[in-house]
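EI: anyone free to look at a 382-residue chain?
SC: sure, send it
EI:
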Amino acid sequence: MLPRLRQLTRSAGSLHAGQGMISGVIALTLASLCFLGVLAFHFPQYLTTPELRQNYDVAIIRQLLFVSLVIAGGLSLFNIVMQRASWLSAAAFALVLSSALLGGHKVPVGDVADGTPYIGLDWFILDLLGSALIFIFIEKLFALRKEQPIFRPEWQTDLQHFAVSHMLIGFVLLATNLLVHRFFGWAASDGLRGWVATLPFWGSLLLLLLVSDLTQYWLHRAYHQVPWLWRLHAVHHSVKHMDWLAGSRQHLLEILITRTLVFAPMFLLGFSKDVIDAYILIVGFQAVFNHANVSVRLGPLRYLIVTPNFHHWHHSQDQEALDRNYAAHFAFIDHLFGTAVHSANPWPKHYGVLGDYVPKGFWRQLKFPFVWQGEQSSRAAE
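SC: here you go
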């Protein structure tokens, strides 16, 4: 069983219907997330995110866990009885049984101590489950490249990036907060914050989106034009197949730099919690959607806001698209500064870094900026 599971997790390509593989993978995925969820219930002070813990209803999480266990158990048992990919379903059922023996959805949770070191296991589980359900469905409805399977090449690397960035959310939040206060605390102005506080909700939200996108635009240009920053950003551009998971491929140091510099204007302008929460929802959706394998251009709106079409061009290897389309939210910023792609082709042909010099695999990509001896430019392979 273990060799076949190892082979499955290292493979890529389409799953064929009628063999029990699709239902088996669904069962194994749900069972794995359920097992991790039970562990999070047992050790909430170490495996859950305090900020997230305060905002979800534990009763609803318990119901979600129970339903997921039932689905995973039902699918795996059906496949075992019907002798369809029994090895895969047996592994899923073993995880379901282990979760149940550990208490399942009924694990008691008392008061959780604050201030303990933690990893964001709950954030990883909920975001992976929610993103997969939403965006895989959207990709199947509006697929740009219909031949591209869900498990396309290098999906394992991007899932590792996704997992690590979510698990280390506590460290990133702490480091970002410390850096912003250390380097930008002196610039805070009560007068400016007072003016922002008088704005209506939608006005404040639009201002936050605009200010953060202007910050990201110039930072993004720097990632492409400053050699040592490109070493970090090249990891993100090494993706050759765009889908909902592709945007997760980012070097940890780039995540820290970007979040610090984008959070700085939020701190200086003093936006309310409600506005910041709405901003995070918009940013989270756009970041995933604009990398997704979807054929969405939105007509004339694509000149105003960033769409999947707009951002796909940013990841293109086509000469006309190199070092262009930097904005994250508002496409008009690139048109304003003369960095927008103007192509007769509706979509790019190829993605990735010119020269394909970024190594494959999470750990190699983590080391890459510090060991690479090649040209230090986003156009190095022209």
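EI: The first helix runs from residue 2 to 10.
SC: 👍
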